[in-house]
Specification:
Length: about 375
C-alpha cells in the first residue's frame, strides 16, 4: 500500500526504524527484473555544501560504503560537493553527464536552478534521484525526511518549553534556512503551523546559504530592534543557524539564554544541548537516509523494479512534477533527555565524543556517562 506523506515521529534506534519502513525486507533479488546493469556501476553523488558538517562526516561515507556493499565492491561512487555554489553544482552535474555515470544522487543547492541540468541527465538516459532536497525537473525519485514534520517538531518543542502560560505576549525570532532550499520553506511552514496564534513572530529572517555568520548578523539585528530581554525564544532552522543565533545572544550580554531550536544533531549542537545553551535539535537518522538512497540508486540502475518500488512507497509533488516516488524518513526531537537513546544508540557519536573535558561536568549533571 502506498502512502502520500504520512510519517509519524519515531524515537527509536536505527535498526527499529529500518524495519518499520519495510526496507529490510526489500532484498531485490535477481528475480525482480532483468538487470540492465551488473555490479560494475558508477554512481554520481552531488552534495550541496560544507557548512553543515553532516554531508562530509556522515552522508558521503555512509552512502559510499553502502554502494560498495551492494555491488560486492565492484561499484564506485564519484563524489562532488558544491560548497553552496549553485553554478558550481550545475557544472559538476554536467561533468557527470559527460562522464556517463550510471545514476546520479542529487542534493541541490538551488532546487529550481538545477532543473535544466536534471532534464539534460534525463535526456542522456541517466536517472536522477533527489536526495534530502526536492530538486525540480524530471527526477526519478526522492528521499528525505518529512520536512514539514521537522518544523512542527521544532515549533511544538518551543511551545512545550515555554510552558502552559505561553501567549501572544511572548515574542519569537525566526532564523529560517536558505531561500534557495525548498526544505527551508517546508521547515518554516511546519513551525508556523504550531506557532501562529500562540506566540508573536517579532522578526523573521531567511538565512542566506545557511551560513552561521549570516544567522548571527540577523539575530544581532533582531536583538537591536526588539531588545534581548523581550525575546522569549528563538526558532533556528538548523544547528548552524542556532549556533550563530546563540553567539549573537552571548555577544549582547545574555547570560540566561532563551530556548533555541536546531536540526541535524551536529556534535557542537549536542554539546550545546548538554550545556543548556541550545534547547533542542531534530535528530534525523543519516545512516537510514544514506543507506536507503544507495539501495534506491543501485536498484534503479540495475533494473530491480520490485526493490525500487518497495523503497519508494510515498509520493510527493514538486513545482514541475507530480506523484514522484519517494521515501520519507521519520525524525525525533533531541533534548537532554534522549541523547543516549538517539545519537549514541545509533552510533553517530560515542559519549566521550560529546563529554569532552569542557562538557564533563554538564554531562555528569544530566547523567550522560
Amino acid at each position: 500500500m502506498r502512502r502520500r506523506i504520512a510519517i509519524s515521529v519515531a524515537a527509536t534506534s536505527l535498526s527499529v526504524m529500518l524495519a518499520g519502513c519495510g526496507v529490510l525486507d526489500a532484498t531485490g533479488s535477481s528475480d525482480d527484473a532483468s538487470p540492465t546493469k551488473g555490479n560494475d556501476i558508477t554512481v554520481g553523488l552531488l552534495l550541496p555544501e560544507k557548512a553543515n558538517t553532516r554531508y562530509e562526516q556522515f552522508d558521503y561515507p555512509i552512502f559510499k560504503r553502502k554502494v560498495e556493499s551492494l555491488t560486492k565492491n565492484q561499484g564506485k561512487v564519484v563524489y562532488a560537493n558544491a560548497d553552496a555554489d549553485a553554478e558550481k553544482q550545475a557544472s559538476q552535474l554536467q561533468q557527470m553527464i559527460d562522464d556517463q555515470v550510471d545514476v546520479i544522487l542529487l542534493d541541490a543547492v538551488d532546487s529550481h536552478g538545477i532543473a535544466d541540468g536534471v532534464k539534460k541527465a534525463k535526456e542522456a538516459g541517466i536517472p536522477v534521484i533527489a536526495y534530502d532536497r526536492l530538486a525540480e525537473g524530471p527526477i526519478d525519485a526522492y528521499i528525505s525526511f518529512d520536512n514539514e514534520l521537522v518544523g512542527e517538531v521544532q515549533g511544538r518543542s518551543l511551545l512545550e518549553e515555554l510552558g502552559d502560560d505561553v501567549s501572544l505576549t511572548d515574542k519569537i525570532v525566526m532564523i529560517n534556512g536558505s531561500p534557495t532550499d525548498p526544505n527551508a520553506k517546508q521547515f518554516k511552514a511546519g513551525a508556523l503551523s504550531e506557532l501562529k496564534g500562540k506566540v508573536t513572530i517579532a522578526k523573521s529572517y531567511d538565512t542566506k546559504d545557511w551560513k552561521p555568520e549570516n544567522a548571527k548578523a540577523d539575530m544581532a539585528e533582531a536583538i537591536s530592534e526588539i531588545g534581548a530581554e523581550n525575546i522569549a525564544a528563538v526558532y533556528a532552522a538548523n544547528d548552524g543557524t542556532a549556533g550563530g543565533a546563540i553567539e549573537a545572544l552571548k555577544a549582547a550580554g545574555v547570560t540566561e539564554l532563551p530556548p533555541v531550536t536546531g536540526q541535524d544533531a551536529e556534535l557542537a549542537a549536542v554539546q550545546r544541548i548538554v550545556a543548556g545553551e541550545q534547547y533542542m535539535s531534530v535528530y534525523k537518522s543519516y545512516p537510514q537516509e544514506a543507506e536507503a538512497a544507495a539501495e534506491m540508486a543501485v536498484a534503479k540502475v540495475q533494473g530491480k523494479d520490485i526493490q525500487f518500488d518497495a523503497l519508494t512507497r510515498d509520493r510527493v509533488d514538486s513545482p514541475t512534477d507530480k506523484d514522484i516516488p519517494a521515501q520519507l524518513v521519520p525524525v525525533v526531537a533531541l533534548t537532554q533527555k534522549n541523547i543516549e537513546d538517539t545519537v549514541v544508540a545509533d552510533g553517530i557519536y560515542e559519549v566521550p565524543d560529546i563529554c569532552t573535558a569542557k562538557y564533563k561536568a554538564a554531562c555528569d549533571a544530566i547523567g550522560l556517562k
